[in-house]
């Protein structure tokens, strides 16, 4: 038996191809949306992996440093180093801000780190790690900064000495690593006018500028213009110590919150990305419905255009399942063309997206199955219409 | 003239036509073979002649069809009686609303009559109820259709349009296509075998649709105004072909027509008026 669907597709291949391309672009968007979600999850995992830490120590009762604000004094890391099982501990600050680059600015997450300690980029694609205590930066390539370029954070200029990749915040902002002291200063550094204003206010406050207490005002003003807080302390567990065991010790004795990598991943994926994931899921559902509606409409109109031929086919004894099979195969053929176009399109345009888009073979397979199911479902309307065609309509009168 | 009432029995048509159930050798007689068929062509049924159903390609007795019920019921067919011998081509003419289409649909097993009896190729298919549940197979294997417009499947080439029917009957593709080519040769359109229907002229399309109707070697062909869209020359050409094919394949053919050009070519004509058939002798003008 010849393939009626195949012959019909070959006969009107231009219509099928153009429709398939249109559908394919929609499927490409769907695959890309799934890729955006996968990219966010992967970014989170890579961020944790590249930090080189086993534990994230943050302010008690917070989900910091990524999901909630967390503030710790910067001398806590010394206490942690004294605990058994702690091989290394380092302060880290995070601050999302606009980084000036000539006349333009780039949104980035500025990360204050201690060179050679947990928190610094896991690997570089160009240049070197930070070695000096001030005014050097290592940038993620997504910032668009080049080696040797000078960028401005607040009132200070920083030379880009190294480039890394896949170091982005949960919001997708690329990271810019600078020395910890600079980062702490950047968080609180004010312009000169504001500093003078604050000093005048403090001096005018009789509670802070008591007569007969020399040095009090200077001490208060010095404390107001400096910052000794960090957002987290990254801890690397010593060999032979389970991170969870070390985390329990920190929680018990230091009254701090300590998260293992698995727990931090859970916070990032299940809490921080959850809203975005739901957003994307909604888009996927809508795109699936739109795709189904398009396929249903196209197949339905194509079937209505063949009502007379279908009536003749039924009159001359074609089985209903042969006619239904023809329509189903056409819908699946359309889906196949659409999926191929969509996969190719998504592969080509994914690198152009500002956020990392991860297209996985598993998602492609799921997408393929979903497209085929949607097409099969969408064809039912046309099949129903075809099966209702009365063979008597082929006979005049 | 009232139509002649006939009794129905099994005819010897079963000997040369495959039964409704798939089976048999699957061989098709070629046009060359058909010149000397196993059962030699019978002379067309003569008015007032034998009414034995053994000779009947089509036999209709007391056929009625009522649409609706109660006060709104309409009797589209009140008393239809027809007999067409194998190898005979008869005309069915009548004004609009006379019941031609209803009769054709009943004969084509697409609507169910209300009462009466129909025998096609010696097999009673309806006797106040359908005698088979598989009407689709009945239409596929026992009835050929030729329409006013050829209604060829536009996405199949000429050969496959003709071969489709044997393929639907379960014949292998190669055998079905060989059969198609034989018919196309017989109808003088073999040179367009690979063409798409849209590339054919109206006359060529109609010849292909006749080939399709003959593809499963049915005992009966129902032709619904097959010459309506054609000019005189082509219309007579189609009638010549139908007569040739009827003679060669021992097929009983009913041609529903309004076409004044072809009415004189029938030897017998059934008029249908107000749901009743009336038989008269035609001119039988040579084609």
Word description of this protein:
The complex is a heterodimer of chains A (397) and B (287). Chain A has 397 residues and is α+β, with helices and mostly antiparallel strands. Helix content of chain A is 52%, strand content 17%. In chain A, a hairpin with a 2-residue loop joins strand 7 and strand 8. In chain A, helix 2 packs across helix 8 and helix 2 runs antiparallel to helix 9. The two termini of chain A are 32 Å apart. In chain B, 26% of the residues lie in helices and 22% in strands. In chain B, strands 6-7-8-3-9-10 form a six-stranded mixed sheet. In chain B, helix 4 packs parallel to helix 6. At the A-B interface, helix 1 and helix 10 of A face helix 2, helix 3 and helix 4 of B.
What series of H and E elements makes up the topology of chain A? HHEEHEEEEEEEHHHEEHEHHHHH
**Total beta strand runs of chain B:** 10
Radius of gyration of chain B: 18 Å
The chain-level mean pLDDT of chain A equals 90
Radius of gyration of chain A: 31 Å
Strands side by side in the biggest sheet of chain B: 6-7-8-3-9-10
Q: Main β-sheet of chain A, in a few words?
A: 10 strands, mixed
Catalogue the unreliable spans of chain B. 1-53
Uncertain residue segments of chain A = none
Question: Number of helical runs of chain B?
Answer: 7
Structural class of chain B: alpha/beta
Extended strand count of chain A: 12
Helix segment count of chain A? 12
